[in-house]
Amino acid sequence: MSTEQADISEETPIKQIAAHCMSYQGADEMRSVFQLITTVILYVAILIAAYYSMQISYWLTALLIILAAGLLTRLFTLQHDCGHGSFFKTKKMNDWTGRFLSLFTVTPYDFWRRSHNIHHATSGNLDHRNVGGVETITVKEYQSYTPLKKFLYRIYRNPVFLLMFGTPIYILLASRIPHTERSMFYDNGKSLSGYSRWKSSILTTLSLTLFYGVMAYFVGVNMLLLVILPTLILTSWIGGWLFFIQHQFEDTYWDGSENWKLQEASLHGSSYYKLPKILQWFTGNIGLHHIHHLCSKIPNYKLQECMDARPELRDINQITFWKSLKCMRLKLWDEDKKCLVNFKQIHTA
User: Fold this and answer.
1) Who's near 247: CB < 8 A, 6+ residues apart?
2) Does the pTM of the predicted model rise above 0.85?
3) pLDDT for 12-67, tens place per residue?
4) 333 three-state secondary structure
5) pLDDT tens for each residue of 113-129
6) CA distance 233 to 237
7) Is 26 left (phi over 0), alpha (psi -120 to 50) or beta?
8) What's the CA gap between 151 and 312, in Å, rounded?
9) CA-CA distance, 89 to 140, in Å (whole number)?
10) Alpha carbon 108 to chain centroid distance?
11) Rounded distance between C-alpha atoms, residue 270 and residue 124, angstroms
12) Phi, psi torsion values for 255, nearest 5 degrees
């Protein structure tokens, strides 16, 4: 933990900050409905425009696909709120809205919800790392691995593989196949039941087959291959990057179960990714991730209000876009230094 984090923690007890954040939890359903309707309409309208733009120039289509990917990212953050039960007041409304949005995000909502909530309950815990997060090992674990296992971990943590290939493969293919999310690098955490995996993945895949099959019948396969598929791939890159930078920064928080504390892990193990306002809108304020992890019941549209009312929250784990790029080199958790390090650092130490 950085000196800045420690000072903030001493001056403002974490329980006081948590109590402040909790005062913002709970849905304002009029705002939720407005967000949902406007974003869906804008997304569908951009897809239609992209479809017709192919008759003019695919360069124009590409520009519209970028805009569509931004809107689809926003739709995913709405689905994300549903998974936390913060978008509507009732579980039924949250769950059925989340399942509906699966038609656009192609993410099995129920499976993802369970997995992601385990991530929230165990984030930063070295003894429970294998569900819903980017796989991260310690320096000592890495040094104990065989050459082959070290090589595989290096490949996995390579940004090109992890983000450019890994996230589209996971969203488009792996999510279609029920899986336990077991790690290939450690086996010390929770997993989801076989029934919940199968039910969510299979039902979502069947729904997607019907939905996009009907679309292909009426507007043609080109719509799927040249508009929908690139939009999904670009969105997976955006989402993968956001998810990576939310916890993979130098002064993040990791500890064993014996010393691990949920509120400290939530606040200090999650970043505040400071983005321009327009990008913050497209990403549904998900960059204010330290607040979200501290109180996941806050809907996306209240996160900025929560931070504005408590200015010191801006100083905790703030990462700018240019600073975030440097985080790609971080690969291992150093239990002695209490920070993420790169491979070169462990060879020169």
Assistant:
1) 123, 124, 133, 134, 269, 270, 271, 289
2) yes
3) 588 899 999 999 999 999 999 999 999 999 999 999 999 999 999 999 999 999 99
4) strand
5) 988 998 999 999 998 88
6) 6
7) left
8) 41
9) 45
10) 14
11) 9
12) -165, 160
